[in-house]
């Protein structure tokens, strides 16, 4: 008799759970997969017509934040009826912030970088931004008047399937080394142009008790590896060929030039400060600024803050990882932050007006941001004039061409397995390369 | 026969109402998202507008256990277990000893209690910053101390030392709460038992072993369980101290975080559905271990 109520209770308890599951499934189904409007919006010319709020979300960096502030001030002067909500988020949290605000539809201008998928890469590896571009999640900006102000070759680099969804803010280069001109001069050294010269230079510095290269192991973006790849595969075509042959399994990660990449990275690590695996970016920079290290493995985005610190007279040269000087002639780089307007933006007229103001005031922006300019006729920091011979031909860096295979193991993500090399990891170059090849093959 | 409900609620509708509000909050913010995650783990949702979501069945789970990922995931699992076991063991033993010490009549006892509890108030980011500075391999105090022994290491960057250091920091950060729970348990032990033990001629060690610890078992159960569940899922300190993708200290919950939310610009490589699948695997592991621990400790409680 007492058992009956408990059985009734039990059946009652199961169905709420099922109901919750069903409700969740319905909710998920309804809030995704809606078709995007697409279509273009003209830049409004009547300042009075642009009203409401404008929400801008970018990732934070000292230079670009100051640059955007200059643009916002110019915008407020031209379109006084718009309230600008400008938010800049630390880079590590940017993706998270953008995802939640995109879903809520509360971004009018944000950052995006849709990368076209080459034919040899399976569709499952398309990145988030490329998927959004395919689904019409960004407004097509190709025919907007302000796009004409930017350098056509730069626009070509960031186009997606022939259309421009993003506005470039500048270029940066990172396959080189920032060096202390005084230390070089005092020791009778000049920037090396071949690998052997580079090794000789580092050995000479080490003998004098100066750290040849300071590396911030804890938060490094793997620039040393990218610099070596730049010399061993100098042109975009060479890099594309490598990527294609890896995907088609006609090249292996554990022999030939691919293994050479890891071997050279391993050797460069022997010229870094002791225990660099525990140093972070700011510790690395301070070693350079206090003259303890002669060079740092860094990108040109740091030019502004090095300039401000005003402690070291610095220059930049490509890291020569090849013994053929012609291979080391040009720096690898990328287009810096690129701005986009999501299709679900609530205030598209204001977003377009803002982008127009950005294009008009690009000079003021770049003076603060310190990038290599993306507009013809705009002069960047004199530093960029100095490295002009290395940037005459723009070479895209490896990480702008390589698309990782989500089905492969972690060691084959980049796919050069530098994180496993001592002292960052526990292997030598051969073991790291073999591990990467094994993980790559697992994703076939 | 009275039904058991009567004793809990009585005739008072206020108690029922507040209970209902409480339970509805738990359902809304805990149960529904948890079931939602289970549903999501069978899809390839990307949590972005305009992207279609499709049902992929157990694909995400197959990817997790696939030959390509299994090596990495097993390493993460191993790290998780080592971390959880070490933290639980050291945190509880040290906390117990500190609690016994702080339960005595000592001068400055209140000050000592405040100092022991202080790390709990500091946030994860502050603790991370403090220890990053202390363990700065080129100029920090720990490096100088290490050099006095003639050794040098990269501390958090050293793949062999990183895990030990992270465990140390986690224990340091969590000891306050454990001490408070043990203190409460200690103060519930009737002092007459100690007097009886004194009369029987027991030494301090024997008093600890035969009076204190058996009567403290409920606190031990509570603390151990909290610690195990917490440390199996803890990733915040590891993220702050050694970054999101350091293989030496990669734990399962950190893998979920990076897969689910990515990091810098560029988005995640896998879908959030995959992150949800890892999350479900972690849930099963935590549930099995916690239930086993609970059963074992409960049995020990009654035995003692």
Map the helices and strands:
The complex is a heterodimer of chains A (444) and B (304).
Chain A lengths: L2 H28 L21 E8 L2 H17 L3 E8 L1 H14 L5 E2 L16 H7 L17 H6 L8 E3 L2 E3 L2 E5 H6 L8 H13 L3 E4 L8 H10 L3 H12 L8 H14 L11 H9 L3 E5 L5 H7 L4 E5 L13 E4 L2 E3 L7 H13 L1 H8 L12 H5 L1 H4 L3 E2 L1 H4 L27 H14 L2
Parallel strand pairs in A: 1-2, 7-8, 10-12
Antiparallel strand pairs in A: 3-11, 4-11, 5-10, 6-8, 6-9
Helix pairs in contact in A: 2-13, 2-14, 8-10, 10-18
Chain B lengths: L4 H5 L3 H28 L18 H6 L2 H37 L5 H13 L2 H11 L6 H8 L13 H26 L3 H9 L4 H12 L1 H17 L2 H7 L9 H10 L10 H32 L1
Helix pairs in contact in B: 4-8, 4-11, 5-8, 6-12, 8-11, 8-12, 11-14, 13-14
What keyword list fits this structure?
heterodimer, A: 444 residues, alpha/beta, D-Maltodextrin-Binding Protein, domain 2, 4-stranded mixed beta sheet, 3-stranded antiparallel beta sheet, 18 helices, 12% strand, globular, disordered N terminus, B: 304 residues, mainly alpha, MetI-like fold
How would you sum up the global shape of chain B?
A: globular
Per DSSP E runs of 2 or more residues, the count of β-strands of chain A stands at 12
Question: How large is the share of residues in beta strands of chain B?
Answer: under 5%
User: Gap between N and C termini of chain A, in Å?
Assistant: 62 Å
Helical content of chain A, roughly? Answer: 40-55%
Largest interface by residue count?
A-B, 67 and 57 residues
Q: How would you name the CATH homologous superfamily of the largest domain in chain A? A: Periplasmic binding protein-like II
% residues in beta strands of chain A: 5-15%
CATH architecture of the largest domain in chain A: 3-Layer(aba) Sandwich
Compressed to H and E, one letter per element, the order of chain A equals: HEHEHEHHEEEHHEHHHHEHEEEHHHHEHH
